[in-house]
Structure formats: structure tokens, C-alpha cells
Structure to design on (358 residues):
């Protein structure tokens, strides 16, 4: 009986592993995300792992190229809703049969900041001419800087394409010596060029995807290598995007802290109040006061500021300044007496220098 039970378990395991092999690679496992992960989570996981697993960074690992190809295939499938649905239904083999696996390189338009320069280039390569960098502002909301987001930008870019004929290239100034006879020589400087295949500049539309990471700050740069101005005899420059925060209706950011104002009634200022403030990601911050609140009072909410860019588990402080709205009606003599009786407060007539605080 025990032997039969063991045989059953072995048979079940064999069937399971055969199914896994038939289904192809585990793309969720390769990216380290759950099956319920949304597209943004897939993109974020790919961006992080692509930097770690790039072959240029793992030259001692003989499997580096294969790991990187597996990572690209996982991103290609799980970032595409149609491919992902088919993969979830019947695995990688179904995608291959339907011709839906094209193995494109996601680096072609993904995120920026993916230049890999780990040494090994020659002096000549380092001195190759480059096109100009392009600097652009990327306008983002405070909500995007709080939660993170992926932004698609479309730009028209000049791309170098082959053309008929040849052209002069690699032009340089050289000293040429002429023998004038009788021991006399003349040295002149002239331009010397090489003959290269001709090229033309063609305008192409490029779709770039930028990750706005939580906690980024104004002026922070995101670089797309070789997406700047082209150079016919060298490499293209870079496209550099600078973060620019749009003004917000409720919050003001200073460092990792957030500042806002609330207005309450005089009644609430005297007897206390409860107020729910909607934060940048939609969660509620409850402000509860059970005592007198003076105009200009500041309420601190630790951990309710912006996420820290270096460590998203750390958050700044939310500072709330309270304004008090006084009644606009005129009180009757009877009401005034009732207020005096209720407050039991003597008149305070203090005159002082409020600017210097003396």
C-alpha cells in the first residue's frame, strides 16, 4: 500500500514537471512578480533587473546573455495585455505557435538611463565626435512624484540612414611640407578628409517611456542615451529630461515634507473638530482636535509627507496650518452677554512688535 502511494506521488510530480516544461519559461518567476501584478509593477521589475542582469555588467557569468534574453521575453509578454492573457491560458508555446513572440529588444525605447559603460573602450572610441545633447523639461504632477508613474512621450528625431554616393568625412587639419629646393622647405596647414559612404537625415517618430519614480525632486535628470542630436561621423548625443513639478491646488512640497492649510469655523476652533484630508494617492488623513485650536496653529502628521527618493519606505512630515473663519453676522446685546458668560475671558489688549517677536 505504501509503495503504491509513493508511486502515485511520483506520477503526479512527473505530470506536473512535464506540464511546466511544455508550458515554457516561467515569466512571472523571471521578473519576480505575482500573477496579479499590474503593468506598472511589471515595468518596474524589468527596469530594476535589467540593470542587474545586463551582460556588460556580468562578463564572468557564462549564462548572462541567456538570463538577459529570458528577462526581455518575460517583459515582452507580461507588459502586453493580449500576449499575457494567452500566456496565462496556455503558456509560452501557444505564443510561439501563433507567432506572437518577436523577441524585440525592450531597450530600444524603454525608460532611459540605461547606458552601460563599464570600461574596455579604446581611446579612439572615447574621443569619437558626438552630437549635441537635448535638454527638455518633463512636467509631472505631485501625485506622480508621490506614487510613481510611467509617462509616454513622443518626439520626432533625426535618424541617419544610408544614401547613394560618397561624402567627405573625418576631416582634419594636417601639416604638409614642400621642398622648395636649395635646402628650403615650406610648411602649410591644409584640410585632409576621408571618403565615406553617403548618408541622409530622416525624420522619425519615436515613442519613449519614462519612469517617474516616487520621491523624485525638481531638477532631477533622466537620461536617454543616444536619443539626442545625431552626428554623421560619430555617436548621437543624449536626451536629458528634467523633472518639473506642476503647482498643486492643496499641497506644497519642501524637501520630503508637505505643507497645506485648512480653514475651520470659530465654533470648531473652540470645541474641537474632526476632518478627513484626501492625500495624493487617495488615502484619508484624519485630523482630530478635542481642544481649542488657535488661528495659525500647526498640526504635524509624521509619515504623511513625500516618500524619500533613496528609500521609499521613509516619508516626510505633513504640516497643516489652521485658519479660523470668524462669523460674519453681528451679535445682539443679549448674544454678546451670553458669549461673555460662556467664555469667562477677560479682555487682552497687548501691543507688541510682532515682526521681531519682542
Amino acid at each position: 500500500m505504501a509503495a503504491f502511494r509513493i508511486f502515485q506521488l511520483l506520477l503526479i510530480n512527473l505530470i506536473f514537471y512535464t506540464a511546466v516544461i511544455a508550458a515554457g519559461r516561467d515569466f512571472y518567476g523571471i521578473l519576480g512578480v505575482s500573477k496579479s501584478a499590474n503593468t506598472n509593477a511589471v515595468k518596474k521589475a524589468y527596469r530594476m533587473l535589467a540593470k542587474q542582469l545586463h551582460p556588460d555588467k556580468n562578463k564572468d557569468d557564462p549564462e548572462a546573455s541567456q538570463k538577459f534574453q529570458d528577462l526581455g521575453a518575460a517583459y515582452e509578454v507580461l507588459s502586453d495585455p493580449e500576449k499575457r492573457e494567452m500566456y496565462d491560458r496556455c503558456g509560452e508555446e501557444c505564443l510561439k505557435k501563433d507567432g506572437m513572440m518577436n523577441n524585440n529588444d525592450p531597450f530600444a525605447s524603454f525608460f532611459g538611463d540605461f547606458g552601460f559603460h563599464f570600461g574596455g573602450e579604446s581611446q579612439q572610441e572615447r574621443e569619437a565626435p558626438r552630437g549635441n545633447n537635448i535638454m527638455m523639461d518633463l512636467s509631472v504632477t505631485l501625485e506622480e512624484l508621490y506614487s510613481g508613474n510611467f509617462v509616454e512621450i513622443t518626439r520626432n528625431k533625426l535618424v541617419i540612414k544610408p544614401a547613394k554616393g560618397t561624402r567627405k568625412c573625418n576631416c582634419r587639419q594636417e601639416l604638409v611640407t614642400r621642398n622648395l629646393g636649395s635646402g628650403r622647405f615650406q610648411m602649410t596647414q591644409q584640410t585632409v578628409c576621408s571618403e565615406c559612404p553617403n548618408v541622409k537625415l530622416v525624420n522619425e517618430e519615436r515613442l519613449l517611456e519614462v519612469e517617474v519614480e516616487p520621491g523624485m525632486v525638481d531638477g532631477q535628470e533622466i537620461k536617454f542615451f543616444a536619443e539626442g542630436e545625431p552626428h554623421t561621423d560619430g555617436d548621437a548625443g543624449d536626451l536629458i529630461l528634467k523633472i518639473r513639478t506642476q503647482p498643486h491646488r492643496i499641497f506644497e512640497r519642501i524637501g520630503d515634507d508637505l505643507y497645506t492649510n485648512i480653514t475651520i469655523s470659530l465654533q470648531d476652533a473652540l470645541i474641537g473638530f474632526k476632518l478627513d484630508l484626501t492625500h495624493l494617492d487617495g488615502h484619508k488623513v484624519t485630523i482630530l482636535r478635542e481642544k481649542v485650536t488657535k488661528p495659525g496653529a500647526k498640526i504635524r502628521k509624521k509619515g504623511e509627507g513625500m516618500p524619500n527618493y533613496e528609500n521609499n519606505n521613509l516619508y516626510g512630515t505633513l504640516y497643516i496650518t489652521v485658519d479660523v473663519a470668524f462669523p460674519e453676522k453681528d451679535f445682539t446685546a443679549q448674544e454678546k452677554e451670553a458669549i461673555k458668560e460662556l467664555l469667562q475671558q477677560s479682555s487682552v489688549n497687548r501691543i507688541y512688535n510682532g515682526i521681531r517677536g519682542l
About this structure: The chain has ten helices and eleven strands. The CA atoms of residues 267 and 326 lie 9 Å apart.
